[in-house]
Amino acid sequence: MSLRCGIVGLPNVGKSTLFNALSNAGAESANFPFCTIDPNVGMVPVPDERLYKLAKLAESKSIIPASIEFVDIAGLVKGASEGKGKGNAFLSHIREVDLILHVVRCFDDDDIIHVEGSVDPERDIAIIEEELILKDLESVEKRVEKLKKEAKGGDKKIVAQLEIVQKLAEHLGEGNSARTFEVSEDQKEAYKDLFLLSSKPVLYACNVGESDLEEGNEYVETVRKIASVHDDEVAMFCAKIEAEIAELDEDEKEMFLEELGVESAGLDRLIKAAFKELGLITYFTAGPKEARAWTIKKGTKAPQAAGVIHTDFEKGFIRAETIAYSDYEELGSEKAARDAGKMRQEGKEYVVKDGDVLLFRFNV
């Protein structure tokens, strides 16, 4: 599975600069709103040093990391749900993502215009959330009208769906997000196909100045308080620094980060936070041909994890031969791990753990 993130935020908060650094896709960046007219898409490898160590130990000819797809969506403004600032077109692109990466400006700079005239994370977040909710309300109200016509036939299932969707419309109309609407999974079927914007998990990306990259500032604390309401993840980055890092090779990048006094680039932290927000983990396959990272949901059992590679692996699953990454690294090879009794035979009920090195046995 490939994670898909939509980068949103007000104009001039650092979205396109972040996207450029993430994917080197060359999205235009300028000191005025709507410089990104069409959504830009970039595939970004997930940084995981374990994969490269495994590849070296297994003498793999190629390395295939897990990836995240980032979609850079033009800056939204107040009234976007009504079409202002190209709002309708851009909001439609968010429906297709798994996670909303909400970039929030958390730095002061008189040379960079703020569309609202001042830096205020709480207000800025509220503007974006309100536009997402209003767009959802529009979609839900259309569904209500459709169900009202269908319910005239007396179908009890349709009537029940109408009741749920009407309650959802009322919930959204009061300014609440779709993800705070509490109903059973079965009841969600009534509106699941609407892919509501405000139902998606959010990762807040705080764009800070260089001096605040390690400890943060009062703006970041404000974002953390807002995020804590839904247990959302918060990560800090400095767009200016990330743009510089993107131009460096690995050795230069290490030296640069050391000089700054930070352990990892902000982009690395963002990607890790995105995995955490969505409850994702990584398992590996490694051999002479290739070393590869695979993304699955935490709690996935072995047959379903095998199915990520190919559906035939899941259908004909026999067992998984499993080595913990720490054992593989310590012992130096698959053979050494097997000889030391560290390779386990696991069946259909085995829950795959982050870092497992797996070899699947299956019937064709």
Note the main attributes of this structure:
single chain, 364 residues, alpha/beta, Rossmann fold, DNA polymerase, domain 1, six-stranded mixed β-sheet, 14 helices, 12 strands, flat
What would you say this structure looks like, in words?
The chain has 364 residues and is α/β, with parallel strands linked by helices. It has three domains: 3-47 and 65-118 and 199-277, Rossmann fold, CATH 3.40.50.300; 131-198, DNA polymerase, domain 1 (Orthogonal Bundle); 299-362, Ubiquitin-like (UB roll). Helices cover 40% and strands 19% of the residues. It has 14 helices and twelve strands. The strands form three sheets. A six-stranded mixed beta sheet has the order 2-4-1-5-6-7, sandwiched between helices. A three-stranded mixed beta sheet has the order 3-9-8, sandwiched between helices. Strands 11-10-12 form a three-stranded antiparallel beta sheet. The model is unreliable at 32-37 (pLDDT under 50).
Indicate the topology.
Elements: E1 3-8, H1 15-23, E2 40-45, H2 49-58, E3 62-64, E4 67-72, H3 87-94, E5 99-105, H4 121-151, H5 156-173, H6 185-188, E6 202-207, H7 218-228, E7 233-237, H8 239-245, H9 250-260, H10 266-277, E8 280-286, E9 290-297, H11 302-309, H12 311-315, E10 317-323, H13 325-331, H14 334-339, E11 344-346, E12 357-362
Parallel strand pairs: 1-4, 1-5, 3-9, 5-6, 6-7
Antiparallel strand pairs: 2-4, 8-9, 10-11, 10-12
Give me a quick take on this structure.
The protein is of the alpha/beta class.
